[in-house]
Amino acid sequence: MPLQTNTAVPLDHQDRRARTWIWLTIAAFAVFSILGLLLALWGINHDLKQIHQTLLQSEVGRIRSHATRTVANIQEELLKNMSQDLNLLDQTDYPRRNWERTFRADNSRPFAAVVDLNNRIVLHYNRELEGKLLPEDWYLEAFSKDPALAQVYLTETPNLTNGVLAYDIQVEILLDDKPIGYYHSGLNAAWIEELFNEKKQAALSFWIWLLLAMLTFEIAAAAALYYTSRRVAILREASKVARSRRYAEIGQLMAGIVHEIRNPLNAMRLNLHVLQRSEQMPRESLAGDLALDREGMIQETQAQIDCVEGLLRILQTYTRPDVARPELLDMRQEVQATLNFVRPLLEHRDMLVVSRMPEQSLCILMDRDRFRQMLLNLLNNACDAMQAGGTIEITLRADQQWAALIISDQGEGIPPAQLERVFEPFYSTKNTGTGLGLAIVRRHIEDAGGDVRCASRPGGGAEFTVRFPLQLTKAAPAPLPQQSTSE
Rounded distance, CA 114 to CA 124, Å? Predict the structure, then answer.
């Protein structure tokens, strides 16, 4: 039998490559998570700044528009009286009437004032501050870089704002295109912050939900990565176990081949030696009995050759099985059909078969010929264990995922130390057995996705349990063939 060279990538190299990819994936996931978090934090900060800037610009524009209309009325009042002195405004009630009306309707404006070129307060919403001077450093910050906030100052000077932190919107008062003073209108900074906090809550809610979605995705990705790494580790260990098992089977196979072929070869060598000796003897010295023995030795040698050929044929079935053709099988029908087939043999050996089968169909996916060969091997094994007479019990049952076939006999059973070896190649407790029947049974079952176990029964005998993945089907149960013996 020619040996095939394994050209696959060594398993150790595959392990290193798998670990490398896992660590690269973990590193990429960590980098992605950190970048996502940093991007989210930057987005939150940028979004809040934009909201605050837009809100401030909008409110400043509103108050500036109102201040511009007020300045136009002041300029018209001065032109009407042909005066460039802002003190004239103290003799008219226009600014005060305007302030009385607007300040009652708008609590965002803490003050309004008219200041001359000497920084003296001519008019003020609070009359107690009129006549006072603005200091040189009367504002804290000027927003000159933003065109929308030109001539806007952050201030809390007591002479102008009465100690309230406010944004001061300044508009020039012109007469004959010459500045004669400034109109100051305030926007309460605390009021702006309250309005900003209301809008910030909505923005933060959006970002919180977005971060939660990102976190959920990252947790799911981390869980998937952990599951994948665990599966890779499990598959790697399974590959190592499978490789060790394959090497062990090869060793057992070679030892079994040597053992099984050595006896026929020894017999053939002995016969050939005797025949060679007889050829060297004179014909007249050969008696009739010796001539007959010679013919028998030739027949015995031919029988030993047939034995070796049969062994090689069984061995070929084990090492190079036929291609499976899986189909949907109803285990009830297949078991009953096989029992009907072996009924004459069972009756001849006084065997009784008790079968327990459910009413519903138990469908599995397997090659029909392999299933029947598997069942025949297990039945023959049970018959050989009891030799003559006795009862074989066959039970079919299922749960949500598996369909189980249980075959038990009333023989002597299997010693506990040998239970793990009954499926090994060339292991047999029978004098005439090859030790490949149960090994072939296990291979066919595992190829179909199932498993097989052997156990000793408490009252004596052996019990084989075969499980297959249960295939769900909505088809109505088909009638069983005529049963040989059932309970």
Answer: 6
pTM, to two decimals: 0.46
Residue of 136 and 103 predicted with greater confidence: 136
Q: pLDDT tens digits for 430-464?
A: 655 556 678 888 888 888 889 988 888 766 788 89
- List, for residues 228-256, the tens digit of each pLDDT value: 777 877 887 887 777 777 667 666 666 66
Residue 107 exposed, middle or buried by CB count within 10 Å (0-12, 13-18, 19+):
exposed
Q: Give the Cα separation of 376 and 5 in Å (integer).
A: 35
**Whole-number Å distance between alpha carbons of 50 and 250:** 74
**Rounded CA gap, 11 and 239, in Å?**
8
Q: Given this model, what pLDDT does residue 482 score?
A: 44
Is a pLDDT exceeding 80 seen at residue 486?
A: no
Say which amino acid occupies 395. T
Spatial distance between the Cα atoms of 152 and 146, rounded to a whole number of angstroms = 10
How is residue 243 written in tokens? 């490789």
CA 241-246-248 angle, to 5 degrees, is 95
Q: Tokens 């949500």 correspond to what residue?
A: 400
Using CA atoms of 328, 333, 337, 343 in order, give the dihedral in degrees to the nearest 10.
140
Angle at 216 between CA 211 and CA 220, to 5 degrees: 145
